[in-house]
Amino acid sequence: MATVIVVGVQWGDEGKGKVVDLLTGDAHCVVRFQGGNNAGHTLVVGGRKIILHLTPSGILHRDKVCMIGNGVVVDPGVLLHELGRLKEFGVDVTPEQLVLSQYAHVIMPYHRLLDAAREVKKGASKIGTTGRGIGPCYEDKAARSGIRIHHLLDEKVFRQRLEGVLEEKNFMFQHYFGREPLDTNAVADEYLEYGRKLAPFVGDVSVRLQRALERGENVLFEGAQGTHLDIDHGTYPFVTSSNTVAGGACCGAGIGPTKIDQVLGILKAYTTRVGEGPFPTELTDPTGERIRECGGEFGSTTGRPRRCGWLDLCVVKDSARLNGLTSLAITKLDVLTGLPTLKVAVGYRCDGRELDGLPREIELMERCEPVYEEFPGWEEDIRGVRRFQDLPRNTKNYLKALEEFVGVPLSIVSVGPGREETIVLSNPFS
Length: 430
Description:
Elements: E1 3-8, H1 16-23, E2 29-32, E3 41-45, E4 48-52, E5 65-68, E6 73-74, H2 76-88, E7 98-101, E8 105-106, H3 109-122, H4 134-142, H5 155-175, H6 184-198, E9 202-203, H7 205-214, E10 219-222, H8 248-253, E11 262-268, E12 271-273, H9 286-295, E13 307-309, E14 311-312, H10 313-323, E15 327-331, E16 341-350, E17 353-355, H11 362-366, E18 369-376, H12 393-406, E19 410-414, E20 422-424
Parallel strand pairs: 1-10, 1-11, 2-5, 2-10, 5-7, 6-8, 7-9, 11-15, 14-16, 15-19
Antiparallel strand pairs: 3-4, 12-13, 16-17, 16-18, 19-20
Helix pairs in contact: 3-4, 5-6
């Protein structure tokens, strides 16, 4: 039996979906533990692409159990639409394959409206949110005024809670944002219907996990976004609204920390970021544009072009500490093929002095200039390589320098988008 947490170590979009899909072959259960449908995991199987936002990536394996933990905020309309899309893809998801935590909080229409209205109100100081209602839903959770999945299964309780919440939200819409109020009955009818459709999937994820561990089953925990979007440890306030670090898996799924065996950090061979916030290694030149085009760096949830830049090892090393990483998986290494020189940030310089590590203050990070180490690139096509020793010499040197600086060994090297385009140096479940 082994438990493995998969987390992103940059600002999200590291390719976690592919790695989770790969590792699911050795897992019995795959658990999503935080975030919402602001995350999109793109999988390529048999040349076909599918994007998942709420359902764990392991759902493509029919003999696995996928779970959506209590730490996830769920838009039930989006989840049902996704299940419908999976059916079109040939995956008819059953309650035996998918368990939705009864304690997960529900994204309501007013959460989405608040998200969008606030971004407009902020103007130039906007965060760059996806507008999916994630933040406002987590706000209500913390304020103890949230609606949970189990509330949708009890009409009387649901209507009572909804009426109390909408009284406050509608006042805000009318008198602060100048918008029309929401109709309580219309919202109630819509969401009670969602509850009826989702009822067969609802269960206690924490209890189910405990039983799986008692049976000696392997469990894979799938995080969304990346470490530096963590609400506590990221580049605040340009962060998401949940704990994206490995510790969030324990709270977001209902499992004790002593049950965790491995933490696998996923990083891209370069760095990307979506939305606002500091990005010291960002490239706004033709090299950055080339990386964006070759890497297909456009948001799977929003379609927005991602900001691209050189690999920042200070960010990765900080993530190794925050997550207690036991190994690393690097993705999109093939995108760098053909670049004559590669740069890697190994430090920062700010106001004429060199900094010791990643600055925590956002104002300081925005003034930082990266200190680069340069490496010769490679011209050889690496997508067909399946053994580390067969990679070009310059590619191996790039990877070995990464390992040495971060102090965490590589276990997986992805050389292309396909499931088979992967070099596995060590299996976290072994």
